[in-house]
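Memo to structure team: turn this sequence into structure tokens by end of day. - J.P.
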Amino acid sequence: MSGQVKRQYDSSRRKEQARETQRAVLRAAHDLFVEQGYGRTTIADIARAAGVSAETIYATFKNKATLLHRVWDVTIGGDDEDVVFHERPEIMAIRAEPDLAKRFMMHARMSTATARRMTPLRLAVLGAAGSEPAAADMLAEMDRQRLAGMTVMAAASDETGQLAVSEEECRDVVWAMTDGLLWHAFVNGRGWSDEEYAEWVGRVWVATLVRPKTRRS
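Reply from structure team:
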């Protein structure tokens, strides 16, 4: 009995150690992609920064393109949990808000926090996309994932009966404003705070997308 418990303990410990190694590799890869560019970063660079062997990285992630994809998943989600972004608790809380104006303000705050996490990596991938096919593919995948998420959010918005535009227009407007580049221009370029930016985006979405409430006589 004690041997079985020990084996279970050893197995759990090995799994946790493997997960910590993966996290170290993902952190190192993210930082190097942002600091020196995707194209100039090698698996050997990442291995040195993470304190592991290159063979360990290849065994876990196969190649640099797959590693980039996993780095993006963790960056956009904020953790390494395998949960679709629009099904995460914070997104579900937004979708549960019945007042569409309030929902868009919540979405704007969440989107701003996401932009702070994802924009440095997106800019690094954007810079490499012209010469690195894997980066170009990843950039297209980033936009595809975001469009899928905005499609879900727009459909949920339409179900409230409070949209002033079509579901498709709602999807496209929010999609176009959430790639991180607008956040970068206002916050890093013009010195806005995240709070100021989120408030402005929310007001734009409410004014553009939400049907004005009729006043009772």
